[in-house]
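Private note to self, pasted from the team thread so I don't lose it. Backbone tokens:
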């Protein structure tokens, strides 16, 4: 069995060579329609295949949103499996946006689905929710360590409703978001060049207001359709901006179904990010 380098090292290399851009694969109904595709399995398959063909050999990360495939049942999952396999074979890292969170054997089953190298859905990393307690994520953290995978933990998300939970004050007097970030930093202690446990921190925030020094990647959704721009990244992330993985979905995907137009849109986004991040 091939032993993968830790995800953090592989991600750092991808960001340094391809730039930090992450593009979502979000085949929601309106986007399929705008591409002239049906909201059906055929449309889903064509959409996913086109995005992978256009971008998998040039962006650091592709991020399929699992829910948009799950809504089609088993045939949608089969399309997702193929998209993940094709994207990884083409050289990009795949971050499964699943936001799973549970306890015990159920969390272990989620971890097996996305972080076990024998799984047909094996991805380089997966998003998880810590709001049953950070310790509930242990099966995913352990599975990632074994497989060389990564875990991105929701900390300060881009949706405005998140603040009522994430900005609440924990028993130790810190915000819940900071508690989560502190746990992530502990997981990444000593890792080089970058830890494999990341945090999700929205680029739409007025300010982070937390310590983002987690020695790990910071997935930054919200650029484009949600209102944030590349120029917001330094304001939100400060000195941690070099570890940011900016996520753009609709801002790139709306230019399909043309492969050339998707590539051009991704290149523009990458250029804007390079001007800010370097």
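Design output:
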């Amino acid at each position: 069995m091939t032993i993968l380098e830790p995800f953090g090292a592989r991600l750092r290399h991808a960001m340094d060579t391809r730039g930090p851009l992450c593009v979502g694969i979000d085949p929601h109904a309106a986007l399929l329609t705008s591409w002239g595709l049906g909201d059906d399995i055929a449309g889903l398959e064509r959409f996913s295949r086109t995005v992978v063909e256009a971008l998998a050999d040039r962006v650091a990360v592709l991020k399929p949103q699992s829910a948009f495939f799950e809504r089609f049942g088993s045939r949608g999952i089969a399309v997702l499996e193929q998209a993940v396999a094709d994207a990884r074979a083409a050289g990009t890292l795949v971050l499964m946006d699943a936001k799973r969170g549970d306890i015990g054997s159920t969390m272990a089953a989620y971890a097996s689905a996305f972080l076990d190298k024998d799984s047909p859905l094996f991805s380089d990393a997966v998003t998880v929710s810590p709001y049953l307690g950070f310790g509930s994520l242990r099966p995913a953290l352990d599975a990632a360590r074994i497989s060389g995978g990564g875990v991105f933990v929701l900390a300060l998300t881009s949706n405005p409703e998140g603040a009522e939970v994430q900005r609440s004050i924990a028993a130790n007097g810190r915000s819940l978001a900071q508690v989560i970030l502190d746990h992530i930093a502990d997981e990444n202690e000593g890792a080089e060049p970058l830890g494999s446990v990341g945090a999700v921190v929205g680029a739409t925030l007025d300010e982070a207001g937390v310590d983002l020094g987690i020695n790990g990647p910071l997935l930054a959704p919200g650029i484009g359709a949600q209102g944030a721009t590349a120029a917001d990244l330094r304001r939100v992330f400060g000195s941690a901006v070099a570890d940011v993985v900016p996520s753009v979905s609709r801002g790139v995907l709306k230019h399909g179904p043309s492969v050339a137009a998707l590539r051009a849109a991704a290149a523009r986004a990458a250029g804007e990010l390079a001007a800010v991040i370097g």
